[in-house]
Fold this protein.
Amino acid sequence: MALRTVVFLGTVFVLATALALVGTAQEYLPDLDVEHPAIDYFDSPSDDPIARLAGRFAAGEIRFAPGNDDLGYLQSLLAHLEINIDSQALVFSKTSFQAPKISPDNPRAIYFNDEVAVAFVRGSDTIEIAAIDPELGPVFYSANMKTLEQDGFARREICLGCHQGPATAGVPGLFVGSVFPGPTGKPSPVDAIITDHRTAFKERWGGWYVNATSGQQEDRSNAVAVNPAQPLLLDETVSRNLTHLYGKVNTDGYLAPVSDIVALMTFEHQTQMLNYITRVGWEARIAQHDGKTDQMSRARMDSDIEALVAYMLFAEEVPLPEPVEGVSTFSETFPKRGPRDDEGRSLRDFDLEKRLFRYPLSYMIYSRSFDALPASVVETIYRRLYEVLAGDEQDERFAHLSEDDRLAVLEILRETKPGLPDYFVDSAN
């Protein structure tokens, strides 16, 4: 079947001016076929948070409450999706289909949890939503925040030129971009990159507002290139350690007055983790459908699972040169979502002194997306995780894991992750 024409109407982060971007730590992975019979991305019914929410609304189980201001049903929608307002991150680069309405004076607000991200632009009635189906990956929607109860959600086809490629592990996915924005927020097509926990601070967050206390470590946030003749020279006057946005942007009309660094760093990690999970799930389902058991197909799958495991264990994470402190309650509310072991430890606990998380294994191991992976893939992932955590793996990529790290992660998993293979539990005896 020929690839259909797609319309971009609802992603979370887009760098439309640099379609072939790769992050400095990323490996290029070839695109997988969204219309393969094992996937049928465009036409498969979705079991994502928006689809479930719409079903509950249609059944009369819930109602959306309109706000008393220009935000319409936005706050009610976030509450039903269990998205905390303290996750707000503000991006001012013109990297969305609503680009004409986005600028340093009018950034785009992003709110997220493990399964869904919601974006809105002040002055626009359109809400953009990316909701995660455990097998399809992100499914994109739009809604009118003034007429949500009447019109509901519209599932949108995505522009695969932006959202399936090197930035997303070759499957439809999400990513956080860092650009060099001009005075209006228009990004330079040069040196735009995709960022995650493997990216050096000095390359992160171009085109974003970032509020934090982070010492003298440099990044691209809170700044624009004011001279068109020097599009890669950011004016970094008063751009470090901003605990508020006064003097940068008027935040009236937003749900929160800040753009929190810890929330943004968490979302950076989460986007690429989900992309890796989506990819290995698609590969396994396609191989099973096609009966591919040849050595080359197996090697490709093993390689991608290995990349997933390494990312999940924070291999190549760039150490924090100085401690980081957020400015919202996100650093407190995110860890409370657990789960926790008998000693009170959680994979959601932050470190923020030397690295992002205290216990270096991704909390996305608890996600519906991970649990929906084919059994053979999950078994391979568990086997590799155990080899590393039990100390049998000597690969230098995992040298960052101390003996205490490995033991703590093993103990947390044993008490908090249902369905672990017996060898995880037996080794504790």
